[in-house]
Amino acid sequence: MPERARRELRPAFRDWRARRPFWGGLLLALGGGEILLTEKASLKVVMHIGMQGLAGYLLPALMVLLGLLILFSPAQRLFYSLTGILVSLGTWLTSNLGGFFVGLLLGAVGSCLTFGWLPDQEPQVSADREPPVSAGEPA
User: Fold this and answer.
1) For residue 84, what pLDDT band results from cuts at 50, 70 and 90?
2) pTM above 0.70, yes or no
């Protein structure tokens, strides 16, 4: 990829990412993916597949779907995040203790991040970086 295209791609992705609860959706999708991978583990590792296996695959797949919906349809983030936390907690019972706690925690944290995300907020300035003072303002 040419250097110029790469320089134009990074700011475009950064702008896209700033307009949505990116990390929440990503963590929710990764949590679902992790749980799906633990379902495919060998039988020595699998502890519990519950409800004849259907819910063990359905709930993590729903987590992945909700994570992607959060990324690509952030207007409905509250519904998706509430559904995501319920589904994440449901994996405790249906699939290997929520993917050995890792997928459960990723899904719960991602849902909470999404629920707490507010659009159209001004970026906060950290305490160590003061905003620049213009020449006409008193210091």
Assistant:
1) very high
2) yes
Q: Which residue is listed with tokens 């992945």?
A: 64
pLDDT on residue 130:
62
Q: For residues 101 and 66, what is the distance between their CA atoms, to the nearest angstrom? A: 19
Q: Which residues, at least 6 apart from 95, have a Cβ–Cβ distance to it below 8 Å?
A: 35, 38, 39, 48, 49, 50, 55, 56, 57, 59, 60
Helix (H) or strand (E) holding 16: helix 3-18
Provide the residue type at 103 as one letter.
G
DSSP-assigned letter for residue 123: P
Query: What is the spatial distance between Cα 121 and Cα 127, in angstroms, rounded to a whole number?
Result: 18
Across the range 121-131, mean pLDDT stands at 65
| In 73-121, alpha helices (H) | 77-94, 96-100, 102-116
32 in Cβ contact with 103 (< 8 Å): yes
User: Can you spell out the DSSP letters for 40-82?
Assistant: TS-TTT-----GGGHHHHHHHHHHHHHHHHHHH-GGGHHHHHH
pLDDT at position 4 over 80 = no
